[in-house]
Amino acid sequence: MQHNRFLKLCLAIVWMIPVWANAQVAVDTIVKDNSPFSRIGLGELFNQNFATLTGMGGISAAYHDPVKINLPTPASLANLKPTSFEVGIVTNTARLSDGDQNAEIWSGNLAYFSLGFPTKNPINEELERVKSPVSWGMNLALLPYSNISYGVKINSTVNDTSEVLNFFSGQGGTYKFLWGNGVRYKNLSFGLNMGYLFGKITDNRIVNITDLVAAYQVVTKKEIGIGGFVWNAGVQYDIIFKKPNKEGTMTPDGRVLTLGAYGNSATGFNTNSSFIEVRQNFRYAVEDTIANQEKIRQEGRLPSEFVIGALYQKVNKWKIGFNVGTAQWKNYENEAKPDALSNNYKLSVGGEYTPDFLSYNNYLKKIRYRFGLFYGKDERSSEALELKNYGLSLGFGLPITLPRQMVSFVNFGFEFGKFGPSDGLEEIYGRLTLGLSLNDNSWFYKRKFN
Predict the structure, then answer these.
(1) Pick from 368, 398, 376, 378: which is nearest to 58 by CA?
(2) CA distance 209 to 412
(3) CA distance 346 to 21
(4) Which of 124, 172, 201, 328 has the lowest tally of Cβ within 10 angstroms?
């Protein structure tokens, strides 16, 4: 009964957070979302890790778990035991500062939907007393890839006489739908994610000469639809430590060192754009169309990426690992929205500790406690402006027992960090990813009747 009440409470929290994230705040210095640097490229890239790994700093390359999905590394799918449905949302609060002015922002969004399952039910293997050296896991997922949300005002002077106000704004983003497969043979796992990138980006610009009476203002609007095939592949290898038992036979002692890597080559995408530019004069009620183009078909190219890592664990007790990754954004191309980007990198370390996962009387001992640190360079950096992102993360995995006594989890991942150049506009942020991991081992179960 207590578990059912706890589950209902968690579901209520999941339902309420998007409501809070979209609430209107009646304070001038609070805006729903404004990320000025999202104007560059495809915008601000979403964290592709689920709540569990977010709390561990994002150490995804070598991580695998029998009851949790690790999306960036498809090789990890081969280790799934039950069917796992994961859904998550993310909320973000930040303080933007350029030294003289400050603004508070608040936003929320879908983080992910994912359904992963083993193609062979482990219960069948136990009942049939046949242990196959090969396992195969599969996954379907939908999640955001990038987000654009900005509003920037720039005042300038033309010929030292006229004051010109430029207002830039934009919104939209891209999403990924992925189909993943992971196959394990003994201690070696391979995996492949394939999917489709899609979305729409809108950029607006208003130019107004503020010190002229009845001046015209020029408004431009560009919409870009994006679509293209995406993929990534991964590999993991477990080194299982053993010790002799009473009979002198070497048996696993619970310690495992996992080495992992994933990545992809550069992939192309297509764009379908429309562009309109008008001149307006509100005093004389005049509006002229300067340019109007539709169905502008162009191409682009996403960068290659490579990530490696290692994770050392005592099964059901503790984990600790690291990640090192980079993506070649210097080779990014987009004919519809050309921007010069640079290669990024990210370093992460993190871990997890469970006091006693079998504890019966002390719930706090069953909680998974997570921590992490991360440091990296953003792809929107340039030679003149280097954007760094660094901070720490904390997380908790709260186990809940559902019908059939299958353990599921409510996962919290907190990130606290700083983003921006060393001298200029900086963002100090706090981000919460809340995820539900619901597990069921009855899929593909062969029921026998006498």
Answers:
(1) 376
(2) 49
(3) 28
(4) 124
Using CA atoms, how far residue 250 sits from 74, 245, 247, in Å, is: 31, 6, 9
Picking from 171, 168, 114, 125, the residue whose alpha carbon sits closest to that of residue 146 is 171
314 neighbors 279 (Cβ within 8 angstroms):
no
Q: 29: which residues sit within 8 A by CB, 6+ positions away?
A: 102, 103, 104
Q: Which two tokens stand for residue 317?
A: 């007790």
CA dihedral 355, 135, 251, 68 (to 10 degrees): -10
Residue 103 sits at φ, ψ, to 5 deg, of -150, 140
Task: Encode the chain (450 residues) as per-residue pLDDT tens digits.
Answer: 444 444 444 444 444 333 333 333 222 333 456 788 899 999 999 999 999 999 999 999 999 999 999 999 999 999 999 899 999 999 999 998 877 778 888 888 889 999 999 988 766 666 566 677 899 999 999 999 999 998 888 877 766 667 888 889 999 999 999 999 999 999 999 999 999 999 999 999 998 877 777 778 899 999 999 999 999 999 999 999 999 888 888 888 999 999 999 999 999 999 999 999 999 887 777 888 899 999 999 999 999 999 999 999 999 999 999 999 999 999 999 999 999 999 999 999 999 999 999 998 999 999 999 999 999 999 999 888 899 999 999 999 999 987 666 789 999 999 999 999 978 888 999 999 999 999 987 765 555 544
Cβ count within 10 A of residue 104? 14
Give the H or E element holding residue 34: none
User: Which residue do the tokens 């009747």 mark?
Assistant: 449
Q: What separation in angstroms does the CA of 251 have from each of 28, 245, 328?
A: 64, 7, 44
Q: What is the CA radius of gyration of the chain?
A: 25
Locate tokens 């953003």: which residue? 378
> Closest Cα to residue 378, out of 343, 348, 339?
343
From the number of C-beta atoms within 10 Å of its C-beta (0-12, 13-18, 19+), residue 33 rates as: buried
Cβ atoms within 10 A of the Cβ of 287, count? 12
In this prediction the pTM is: 0.86
- Contact of 119 with 183, CB cutoff 8 Å: no
Give the C-alpha distances (Å, rounded to integers) separating 424 from 98, 254, 321, 386, 420. 5, 49, 33, 10, 7
